[in-house]
Amino acid sequence: MPTPKIYTESEPLSKADEDLLDYFKNIEKNSLDTLESAARQIISLVTTLLGLFFGVLAFKDNPAYLGMDAIRLAGALSAGMYIAALFFALDVVMPRRLDIPSADLDAMKQLLITLFDRKNRSLLWAQIAFGIGTVWLFILILILLFRG
């Protein structure tokens, strides 16, 4: 394994190294916006798929297949997971009061890391719940297509 190059203050960075540093600074700077954009996308998808979900089940007509336990179970799990995904995604975009220290850069960095970790964790759970809800919606559709 090659020994990593260590830069000292007396050795100037190359243009490529400066570009790389700038690239990672931009990633860090925009990471919270990216997380919130992803959460907003999940919110949009969940609301759309809940419309599809209720359209598939056609609750207003009270069809006979709603009496099937498999339909009710798949429907309840799908709706529950979509609602969970919605709440987790809302946790990502929900504005919060931040007690930002005015001159303590270390505290600011720690606050930013804590905020990123919280939003990242909530987005991960939103994605998991959304995925599980979609699988259950697919199962529900398959049950409806192949019911005897």
Quickly list its features.
elongated, mainly alpha, 148 residues, 74% helix
What does this entry look like structurally?
The chain has 148 residues and is mainly alpha-helical. 74% of the residues lie in helices and 0% in strands. It has helices spanning 15-57, 69-93, 105-146. Helix 1 runs antiparallel to helix 2 (69-93). The termini are far apart. The model has no long low-confidence stretch (mean pLDDT 82).
Question: What is this structure, in a nutshell?
Answer:
The protein has 148 residues and is mostly helical. It is 74% helix and 0% strand. It is built from 3 helices and no strands.
Q: Which regions contain 5 or more consecutive residues with pLDDT less than 50?
A: none
Biggest beta sheet summary: none
- For the termini, the CA-CA separation is 63 Å
Radius of gyration: 23 Å
How is the topology of this model organized?
Elements: H1 15-57, H2 69-93, H3 105-146
